[in-house]
Design brief:
22% strand, 6 helices, 33% helix, 7-stranded antiparallel beta sheet, Cathepsin B, Chain A, globular, 9 strands, 2 domains, alpha+beta, two-stranded antiparallel sheet, 203 residues
Length: 203
């Protein structure tokens, strides 16, 4: 199992206990709560980078690991990764916004992306997905995962971004979503998704 080195840094203290990562229902406006999975996922990545790598501290240099501080970051990222009528429905919107946020903090972010096209014959092989994820986790980098259709996975929402923190050789992975840490089967997703999606690393 390849996993980021300090997943506990994504445990967020709130008034009613601890959750994993940000939660889009924390946004104040209805549209944000409905469509905010992209900026929420980007907030998880930025939060973790700023807490684990000195050169990224200025991305979010605040020390408190609490819900109020995460909400501030989520609101900040919303202004850079702003969902349109179709949400944040491709990796380019996510990447462009994250890079601009980095620039606003004097940090050059260099994204890596592995898109999963709609057409099955154009999709990467299992080993390419595994290599992409394992490279990220080996370098202590969480992965943003866009899933446009969940296929046969019942514990994964369609048209949704989540944060991946680990994966094994069989592509059983752990995601952070809506405050929870959940195992999903990425091999099954690759086999059954009708629309694809993509994976993004910020470094």
């Amino acid at each position: 199992m390849n996993i980021i080195q300090q997943p506990e840094l994504l445990r967020i203290q709130g008034a009613h206990g601890i959750t994993w990562g940000g939660n889009q229902i924390w946004y104040t406006k209805p549209w944000q709560r409905q469509a905010g999975c992209g900026p929420t996922t980007s907030s998880n990545l930025v939060w973790y980078l700023s807490k684990t790598q000195e050169r990224f501290q200025q991305l979010w240099p605040y020390k408190n690991y609490n819900r109020a501080n995460m909400i501030k970051l989520m609101e900040e990222l919303w202004s850079y990764i702003t969902p349109g009528m179709m949400g944040v429905n491709n990796t380019s919107i996510f990447i462009d916004g994250a890079v601009e946020f980095g620039k606003s903090r004097g940090i050059e972010l260099l994204p890596e992306v592995l898109d999963i096209p709609l057409t099955k014959k154009l999709r990467p092989e299992y080993h390419e997905v595994k290599d992409f994820l394992h490279s990220a986790f080996s370098n202590n980098l969480p992965v943003a995962f866009l899933n446009l259709n969940n296929g046969s996975l019942r514990n994964l929402e369609s048209w949704h971004w989540v944060t991946l923190i680990s994966a094994n050789e069989d592509l059983k992975a752990e995601m952070i979503d809506q405050g929870n840490r959940i195992e999903i089967d990425l091999k099954k997703w690759l086999d059954t998704t009708k629309m694809g999606g993509g994976f993004v690393v910020l470094k």
